[in-house]
């Protein structure tokens, strides 16, 4: 059964909710509030949320194969245990920390952590995308964006999706899983409207790419060839990213933001900053874990 409407399953008023990832083993949704900053564990069955404070802004994270997490903090990539206790820095930040921070990140089909940065002043396309191998070697893959976002892979692992939010563009790349190298970047989808800013994204089992449009109050579902399948409105103007969860991976969860929204908008959408969910027809896929 599917539902046309999203409902708020966690009315938490996050400043900048982001990066939802579903843990199949725990049947729980992990997510972050970049500004709090915190890594969170939400249990849909009990509606309980556990916030694990981070020492500085957290842009993204990934589950580790051996347990715990790798977290992308402002000063670099750190390891932390399952309770969110930061243990050691594995990779130093490859940028000027006064101008940049890590942003969207996700494991590729082979368990490498791919993570991008954002130019916080948004005054030019000076951010970059990096690959972190299992031995924690970090390699710059490409640059030329302002806010790196929207990472996802096709079900066969041969295509990588990536968005630059201010450019309102999602690009597709051929992806060499053996080396973790994207190539032949081309425009997959592009928009021009004020509310058409592609933020985080994910793919389902059919290869559809789901893009959260920050400021547009909706998710846009795109077919593998980039054509629009559907738009899914939310009762919040700033969705940031989506993830498939639930026992059958057919519950679509969406994180949202509340930061910098005016009083009139918050009066109209009082649950902005919450987590929303609805049942969908297509199942998602199990999230890869970092093998380092």
Give the overall form.
Answer: globular
Give the helix/strand class.
Answer: mainly beta
Question: Per CATH, what is the topology?
Answer: Neuraminidase
CATH superfamily: TolB, C-terminal domain
Would you tell me the overall average pLDDT?
97
- Poorly predicted residue ranges: none
3D architecture notes:
It is a single chain. This protein has a single domain (7-279), classed as Neuraminidase. 2% of the residues lie in helices and 52% in strands. It is built from 1 helix and 24 strands. The chain has one helix at 263-268, and strands at 7-10, 17-23, 28-33, 38-43, 48-53, 58-63, 69-73, 76-80, 86-92, 100-107, 113-119, 127-132, 138-145, 148-153, 159-164, 169-176, 181-190, 198-203, 209-213, 218-222, 228-233, 239-245, 251-256, 275-279. The strands form 6 sheets. It has a 4-stranded antiparallel β-sheet, with no helix packed on it. A 4-stranded antiparallel β-sheet has the order 2-3-4-5, with no helix packed on it. A 4-stranded antiparallel β-sheet has the order 6-7-8-9, with no helix packed on it. The model has no long low-confidence stretch (mean pLDDT 97).
Task: Please render the helix and strand layout as text.
Layout: E1 7-10, E2 17-23, E3 28-33, E4 38-43, E5 48-53, E6 58-63, E7 69-73, E8 76-80, E9 86-92, E10 100-107, E11 113-119, E12 127-132, E13 138-145, E14 148-153, E15 159-164, E16 169-176, E17 181-190, E18 198-203, E19 209-213, E20 218-222, E21 228-233, E22 239-245, E23 251-256, H1 263-268, E24 275-279
